[in-house]
Design brief:
By secondary structure, the chain is an alpha+beta fold. The chain has helices at about 10-20, 30-40, 100-115, 140-145, 195-210, 260-270, 290-300, 310-315, 340-355, and strands at about 45-50, 55, 65-70, 85, 95, 120-130, 155-160, 165-170, 170-180, 185, 215, 220-225, 225-235, 240, 245-250, 275-280, 305, 320-325, 340. Strand 4 and strand 5 (about 95) form a beta hairpin.
Length: about 350
């Protein structure tokens, strides 16, 4: 049995303990058990266990409630558990699977949840499973369906890595397939057929020449992208292929809904057979909302746009403005050499304490 998590101790030691509890998606029971039993002794928190989701909320009767969420799973281990450290003092770096995505954020959540016994606003802390896998397994999505009251609040923070700065909203993502058809023939008599793979050149040319927009939404600039991400075609070394499929991925600013995003992809690829296979709309940054203002003031710095899709969109879909705010560089998420600067962990903890009230 691993030692119990010490929520009252140093938050960087807590991060290391969390990394050492392997929790690849689908295997979160042990870390959820540890998080639950570490939170239970704190009388100011109502702790709820639902599958491998742990919810801890204050019931202080404040005028406002905020939600602070983080996922407890990671992508598979790559020889990077248990954790280790390099540097020292202010330069300390914590290494290991989940250091960046996102056990640094989870450590901050747990440390602040335990420390703030009299919050300035009521807080719902959520620790959820299965974020790094397909949508149908996502623990936050399940809670949104089954227990939406757990997610109720006027503002939400997702402690995904953001270099300890605020990243507002998120971009949407759409996948579509471009289907090219030709006529099969023996490659010795290619003039009898029509080569579908050769037709891909036109589509790839359009995508290569495409100039993605930079779109300003609520004061933040989102940089879009439309890219081929997969190509399949051909059945044998002596057959002119009659089929070629190009998968494209469109990352779009949160001012577009799914229909507008689809219309844009169809316009760029006009004349081709396009089938949308998957779409998730983005989230507006919501920084113009009053509930966000005090958070911005407490954290300081200039908010930036989030590139990529995160679970903030789930809150946004429920009408709750949400931002990403957590330690670690998102560019290092899922990398074999992922790490988190200790300084980021401390500064995120300090920022949440400035917002939610002093540590007891
Ligand atoms: Zn993550």
């Amino acid at each position: 049995m691993p030692p119990p998590l010490d929520l009252a101790g140093d938050v960087v030691d807590l991060l290391r303990a969390l990394i050492d509890l392997e929790s690849v998606s689908g295997n979160e029971a042990a870390i959820a058990d540890q998080i639950e039993s570490a939170l239970r002794p704190y009388g100011h928190l109502e702790v709820i266990r639902d599958g491998n989701v742990v919810v801890a909320r204050t019931q202080a009767g404040r005028a406002e409630r905020v939600v602070i969420a983080g996922h407890i799973d990671t992508v598979p281990i790559a020889g990077n558990v248990p954790s280790w450290v390099s540097g020292g003092g202010e330069e300390t770096i914590v290494w290991g699977r989940g250091a960046c995505d996102m056990k640094g954020g989870v450590a901050v959540q747990l440390s602040v949840a335990a420390a703030v016994t009299e919050p300035t606003r009521d807080v719902t802390w959520i620790f959820y499973d299965n974020e790094e896998v397909e949508e149908s397994r996502n623990g936050l999505a399940r809670i949104a369906r089954e227990q939406p009251d757990y997610l109720a609040g006027s503002f939400a923070v997702l402690c995904e890595p953001s270099n300890a700065g605020i990243e507002g909203g998120c971009q949407g993502t759409m996948r579509a397939e471009v289907e090219l058809t030709g006529v099969a023939a023996h490659s010795a008599r290619s003039w009898k057929g029509h080569n579908a793979i050769h037709d891909a050149a036109v589509v790839l040319g359009l995508l290569a020449d495409y100039e993605p927009a930079q779109v300003e939404v609520d004061g933040l600039t989102y940089r879009e992208g439309l890219n081929a991400v997969k190509i399949t075609g051909g059945i044998a070394g002596n057959v002119i292929p009659d089929r070629c499929t190009i998968e494209v991925n469109y990352r779009f600013a949160p001012n577009k809904d799914a229909a507008q995003a689809e219309a844009h992809v169809r316009e760029v690829l006009a004349g081709f057979t396009v089938t949308v296979t998957d779409v998730a709309v983005g989230a507006r940054p919501g920084l113009d909302q009053p509930a966000a203002a005090e958070f911005l003031a407490a954290v300081g710095g200039e908010p930036a746009a989030k590139f990529g899709w995160t679970d903030v969109a789930r809150f946004s879909a429920m009408g709750v403005p949400a931002v990403n705010f957590g330690p670690g560089d998102p560019m290092k998420a899922h990398a074999d050499d992922e790490f988190c600067p200790a300084a980021d962990v401390y500064s995120c903890r300090e920022a949440l304490l400035r917002w939610l009230g002093p540590a007891n």
